[in-house]
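PROTEIN DESIGN WORKSHEET
SECTION A - STRUCTURE
LENGTH: 124
C-ALPHA CELLS:
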C-alpha cells in the first residue's frame, strides 16, 4: 500500500507558474505508474497527466499539453506537476494517483491509490 500527499497548490495569476508535488510513503513509489487528475466545482474528475515508472513515458490531456509537465524523482518518492501559463479554466482540486498496472492511463478506475487533493485557483 502507498499513501499519497499532495502539496504546492494555491492561488496563481493566469500566465504565471505553479509546481505541485505528490509525496509517496509506504511502498516504493517507483513500483507505481503515477497520474494527476483534477476536479472543478460541479464537474467530474478529469485526467491531467501521467508518467511511467521509470519516467521515460509521459502522457497529457490535450487541454494541458505544452503548458504542464509531469516528472518524478524516484529517489525522493515524489511526483511533480509543473504548471506553466495556467488559465482560469485550470482552477480545480488536483489529485495525485498511483497504479500498480495501467492499460488505459487516463481512466481513474485504473488507479489504486489517491491523495486528498490540493486546491489550485487561477485568477484572471
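SECTION B - SEQUENCE
RESIDUE ASSIGNMENT:
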Amino acid at each position: 500500500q502507498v499513501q499519497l500527499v499532495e502539496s504546492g497548490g494555491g492561488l496563481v495569476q493566469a500566465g504565471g507558474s505553479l509546481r505541485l508535488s505528490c509525496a509517496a510513503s509506504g511502498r516504493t513509489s517507483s513500483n507505481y505508474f503515477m497520474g494527476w487528475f483534477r476536479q472543478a466545482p460541479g464537474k467530474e474528475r478529469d485526467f491531467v497527466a501521467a508518467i511511467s515508472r521509470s519516467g521515460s513515458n509521459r502522457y497529457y490531456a490535450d487541454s494541458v499539453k505544452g503548458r504542464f509537465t509531469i516528472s518524478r524523482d524516484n529517489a525522493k518518492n515524489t511526483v511533480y506537476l509543473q504548471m506553466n501559463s495556467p488559465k482560469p479554466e485550470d482552477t480545480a482540486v488536483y489529485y495525485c494517483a498511483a497504479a500498480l498496472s495501467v492499460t488505459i492511463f487516463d481512466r481513474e478506475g485504473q488507479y489504486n491509490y489517491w491523495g486528498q487533493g490540493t486546491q489550485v485557483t487561477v485568477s484572471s
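SECTION C - NOTES
The longest strand covers residues 17-26.
The mean pLDDT is 95.
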